[in-house]
C-alpha cells in the first residue's frame, strides 16, 4: 500500500494505491493514528487505485471506522472499484461504513 495525503482545512484525503492486505496492517494503523488525522473533521480514504483487498484489509477499514468513532473525525471510503468494490459489497461494509462511489 502506498499513500499520498492531501489536506484541505478540516478534511484529509488519503489517496491509496496498490493492495490492502495483511502485510499493510502496521502501516495502515500508523496512518490512521497519525498526527495528520488530529483536528480533522473528515478523513477520506480514496481507494480508486487499490487493486486488491483481502479480509485483513477489510478489517483495517473497520478499524479505521472505530478509530473515527472514538476520535473527533468521520470516515469516508471513496471510489472503491473492481475486486475491492465487490469485496466491500459482499461483506456488506457499504451498509456499515460511509462508502461513496463518485
TrEMBL record:
GO terms for molecular function: anti-sigma factor antagonist activity. Pfam families: STAS (PF01740). InterPro entries: STAS_dom, STAS_dom_sf. Residues 14-102 form the STAS domain. This is Anti-sigma factor antagonist.
Amino acid at each position: 500500500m502506498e499513500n499520498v495525503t492531501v489536506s484541505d482545512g478540516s478534511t484529509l484525503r488519503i489517496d491509496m494505491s496498490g493492495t490492502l492486505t495483511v502485510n499493510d496492517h502496521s502501516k495502515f494503523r500508523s496512518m490512521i493514528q497519525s498526527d495528520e488525522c488530529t483536528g480533522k473533521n473528515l478523513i477520506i480514504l480514496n481507494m480508486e487505485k487499490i487493486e486488491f483487498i483481502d479480509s485483513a484489509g477489510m478489517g483495517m477499514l473497520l478499524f479505521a471506522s472505530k478509530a473515527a468513532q472514538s476520535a473527533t473525525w468521520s470516515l469516508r471510503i471513496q471510489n472503491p472499484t473492481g475486486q475491492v468494490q465487490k469485496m466491500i459489497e459482499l461483506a456488506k461494509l457499504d451498509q456499515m461504513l460511509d462508502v461513496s462511489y463518485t
